[in-house]
Automatic annotation (TrEMBL):
PANTHER family documented for this protein: UNCHARACTERIZED PROTEIN YBCL-RELATED, YHYH DOMAIN-CONTAINING PROTEIN
Keywords: Signal
InterPro entries given in the database record: YHYH_dom (IPR025924)
Secretion signal, residue range per the UniProt entry: 1-26
A Pfam match: YHYH
Organism: Roseibium sediminicola
Ranges of residues in domain YHYH: 86-190
Source superkingdom: Bacteria
Keyword Lipid metabolism set for record: no
Protein's name in the database: YHYH protein
Amino acid sequence: MRIIRLAGLAALLAAVFGGGLLAAHAHDITVCTCDQACYTDEVAKVSCERGRARFFSHGLPDPKDPMMRGITATNQQFPALHNYEFEILLKPELAGRPTRTDAGPVGVAVNGVPIFDPSTQGPADRNTGKRPSAFEAGELDVCGGHAGRGDDYHYHIAPKCLIEDLGPDWVEQDKKPIGYAMDGFPILALGWFDKKNAVEKDLDPCRGMKDASGQYFYNVKTTSSWDVLNCLSGRPQHFARDRWFHRQDRTGKEITGIPIRFAIEDSSRRAYGGDVCHVMTGVLQGEQLLLTEGRTRKVRAEEGALFYCNKACYGLFFEADRSRAIRGRAIYYDRIADGCPRGFDVSGLKTFTPYEGPAQSRKGPPPMGR
Ligand SMILES: [Zn+2]
């Protein structure tokens, strides 16, 4: 209903004042949670019933987005297809007090990619009580996202590439949401393209405000840290369900992915029969490698690939056992290629030199869910 009223008003104002002026002065956002036209092609089957909008996605952005590019610190996770079902409350209400968010999902973008709190799951700083920021740690790509513990791609800051793809008509003129928070309130990016629309000074501590009609919304920060929201003004809801498979190593253990300094240049994904092969190329920087003969070697900058097709076809780094002969942490490259699917050319990949010495105990960080 609201859309129709807005459109009518917009047409009237455009006729009287001209379109340019309208963009700067119409302080009403578009509420269109049930409308497929308010989501990208990556979102399917939008429906509304029992007070909630429902939609599905595989959790990956437009294939043209430079996913994973620009990451310098990674847990060697790959962005894989997931099976998400989202539910967004249609008539959210402001709660008596805001709810703090912690590491984990806080919403979803209109392309069906989850949005997470800015922090990682790393331990909180003893002095500030805050967990490390994924953005400051170099974990995010140029679009503001990365692959997490479940090989799930998600954003931690404003989804920059998505906002650019949606464009000024969507974001500034129509004032359509770029996502929804887990309390049901829409997330906008006013001021991203057009500074005249900036609302930064009007935002409450959660980064929210009401439009002229009283509709509450969050607005992403358009500069520096690109924050999405700082807390939830409504009541957090269970809003997402997902199904996926964890990757396993050759011993059948779940791969949890140790963090390494690896500047990702490219990431790709292709199906070969029943396997999906993920490849990430980039430069390993400032790491200590365990060599087959037991010595270690410092790496300043070395190009290579991380890949995974199945538990008998992968090339990934694991942490070497600590020993008195090794100072600090060493990592080794495990390259297994006996079960690679037909058509996947490992020899055509520039891999790192594999470690072939005595078996390591393959300790890694404990599984953390997502
Ligand atoms: Zn993350």
